[in-house]
């Protein structure tokens, strides 16, 4: 019976990590969208919010359940905005 409880506890913990990841990843994607829109409009933007979420995601990823995400630079946002404009 204790093995079952330990497996359940482990699964619950992994599920919580995945749920946190999903929320942080969504927050990161929204921050990316906002930065891209500001860039396309010629407005000033930063990657601070994006990379704050990235840092939290990568902290979770060290626990081995969720994937890591790359740190985003201003140049990456500018390049992505240019690609979108060309489409």
Automatic annotation (TrEMBL):
UniProt xrefs under InterPro entries: DUF2533 (IPR019688)
Pfam families: DUF2533
Protein's name in the database: DUF2533 family protein
Species whose genome carries this gene: Rossellomorea oryzaecorticis
């Amino acid at each position: 019976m204790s093995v079952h409880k330990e497996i359940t506890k482990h699964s619950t913990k992994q599920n919580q990590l995945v749920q946190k990841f999903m929320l942080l990843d969504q927050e990161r994607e929204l921050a990316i969208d906002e930065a891209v829109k500001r860039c396309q409009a010629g407005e000033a933007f930063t990657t601070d919010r994006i990379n704050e979420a990235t840092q939290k995601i990568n902290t979770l990823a060290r626990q081995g359940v969720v994937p890591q995400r790359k740190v985003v630079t201003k140049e990456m946002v500018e390049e992505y905005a240019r690609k979108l404009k060309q489409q």
